[in-house]
Amino acid sequence: MSSENVQTKWGQFIPLVIVFFFWGFVAASNDILIPVFKTAFNLTQGESQLVAFAFYIAYTVGSLIYMGISYLIKEDLVNKIGYKNGLSVGLFISALGTLLFYPAANTGSFPLMLAGLFIVGLGFSLQQTVANPLAIALGPIKTGSQRLTLAGGINNLGTTIGPLIVSFAIFGSNTNENTTASIESVKIPYLVLGFAFLLVAILLKFSSLPERPELIEEDDSQDKTSVKKSALQYPQLVMGMIAIFLYVGVEVSTASNLPAYMESKLGFLTKDVAPYISLYWASLMIGRWTGAVEAFTENMSLLKILRFIAPYLAFGVFLVVNAIANHDLTPFYIYGLVIFVLIAADMASKGNPARMLLIFSSLGILATAVGMVTTGMISVYAFTSVGLFCSTLWPCIFTLAVSGLGKHTSQGSSFLIMMIMGGGFVSVFQGWVAEIIGIQSSYIVGIICFAYLVFYAWKVSRILKAHGIDFDQKVSGGH
Q1: Residue 5 pLDDT > 80, yes or no?
Q2: Which pTM does this prediction carry?
Q3: pLDDT in tens, 382-427
Q4: Would 100 disulfide with which of 10, 116, 125, 242, CB 3.0-4.6 Å?
Q5: Cα dist from 345 to 201, 203, 242, 356, whole Å
Q6: Whole-angstrom Cα distance, residue 19 to residue 204?
């Protein structure tokens, strides 16, 4: 890394995070499409989860295509075409996917709808491959993970407003008597989204983003590990791939099965579920804004203040957006108390990604268990709080999994992005489990996912310390 790269390049970082916003907007909007498609196409709960499956499996297929092309041309694809071009191409592919919603809506074709979502996800796969390392590269390495967390916070701004906008586009205002939606009502919001993809692709093409940024060369590996010829020879990565699979799985399946739970057990109408889906994804934004404060300052006193201001500022964004949407905010004020648990957990982690993963995953188990054994709104708040405890898991797992990989870091990153497919597999699996033991009991799937993450946090810390990597020492100066 150049010695001149001593602060975050905000002029380049800000246009980059637009694509992070899109990923969140579409991913959370899928949770509104699931109950709409379930009713319109008369699907079972398991079949309705094919919406999530089609979207998230595209990440795996996209990664395989990426690696295949790189192998055939004997050069890394992104290095060859450039980072800006990679982002623009990915956005163009996603825009093509949104075009399929028009004929799919006109013909009432569920497979064509799934194909459209798959192609959108295919474009996102290339964008993810480019944007994650680029976010880390646009500034000093010591705040790289905080920039990635901040980008994740922008992603969750998209997840917060996405369900509300798509729900409004499909159902109209919440005072509208319409409680169901025709498939044709889906096509317009996605065509508008496709136009936005193209617009941002052009914007990024002419932005100041570097085509070939100076990426970090990891030097944590000792000589005894440098003889390894593949990223897959590192246990922290292989176990981390499983962790990413299960983390994305529990994050997505908790939200995608929530509408069915609220409709079947609490009597909610489909159109009234959107604010709670929005709260779930806003919970990830709340957690990520809290974890990103170090990207702005190293002043300890200011950091302590920001750790309290940031989560409630993010919560305020959620309240404002829902107020604009004319939703009743009364049920959500009490959620402010739950945020105290997040703040305490963040402070207890002391910046150590392994400790943070352990604490937050344990709280994820607790929240899910409370949701399973309680009734009414308490169970809804418990399930939505899972979003709080998933909020920082991506940067934690990503950091732990690639630590010590040295020259194999970029290869390892590609394998991790491939495992985003867990969002599809785990959602479908929970949907099938729900058909057997009931929707509320099916959240046992989430507890199993979190249990592995607790194990990984404990195990990977030992693996890394055995190779001279101690995050307490590495980050002690920043906390």
Answers
A1: no
A2: 0.77
A3: 999 999 999 889 888 988 887 777 666 667 777 888 898 898 889 9
A4: 116
A5: 38, 39, 24, 8
A6: 10
What is the C-alpha to C-alpha distance for residues 382 and 151, in angstroms, rounded to an integer?
Answer: 26
Q: Please say whether the beta carbons of 77 and 66 come within 8 A.
A: yes
DSSP codes joined into one string, 366-401: HHHHHHHH--HHHHHHHHHHHHHHHTTHHHHHHHHH
* Alpha-carbon distances of 404 from 142, 219, 357, 413, 460, rounded to whole Å: 16, 7, 18, 13, 12
191 to each of 103, 187, 204, 383, how far by Cα in Å? 11, 6, 20, 32
CB 415 within 8 A of CB 355: no
Cα–Cα distances (Å) from 282 to 181, 241, 342, 391, in that order, read 25, 26, 13, 10
CA distance 143 to 162: 29
Q: At residue 221, does pLDDT exceed 60? A: no
Q: For the residues 139-164, what does the mean pLDDT come to?
A: 74
Structure-token match 């989560």, residue found: 311
Q: How many CA atoms lie within 13 A of 75 on its CB side?
A: 7
Name the nearest CA neighbour of 155 among 314, 294, 3: 314
* Beta carbons of 248 and 422 less than 8 angstroms apart: yes
Q: What is the DSSP string of 250-296?
A: HHHHHHHTHHHHHHHHH---GGGSHHHHHHHHHHHHHHHHHHTGGGT
Q: Are 317 and 160 in contact (CB under 8 A)?
A: yes
The secondary structure of 197-237, three-state, reads HHHHHHHHHCCCCCCCCCCCCCCCCCCCCCCCCCHHHCHHH
| Rounded-to-integer distance, Cα 396 and Cα 405, Å | 16
Tens of pLDDT, residues 327-383: 889 999 999 999 999 999 988 887 788 899 999 999 999 999 999 999 999 999 999
pLDDT, tens digit, for every residue of 42-51?
888 788 888 8
Residues 289 and 314 sit within 8 Å (Cβ to Cβ)? yes
The tokens describing 470, both together, are: 């101690």
298 or 364, greater pLDDT: 364
Distance (Å, rounded) from C-alpha 390 to C-alpha 376? 23
* Dihedral Cα 457, 460, 466, 469, nearest 10 deg: -80
CA nearest neighbour of 394 among 367, 413, 378: 413
Q: Which helix (H) or strand (E) holds 107?
A: helix 101-107
Higher pLDDT, 143 or 287: 287
Tell me the two tokens of residue 473. Answer: 């020492």
How far is 166 from 188, CA to CA, in rounded Å? Answer: 10
- Rounded to a whole number of angstroms, the CA Rg of the chain reads 21
Count helices and strands in the chain by DSSP H and E runs: 21, 0
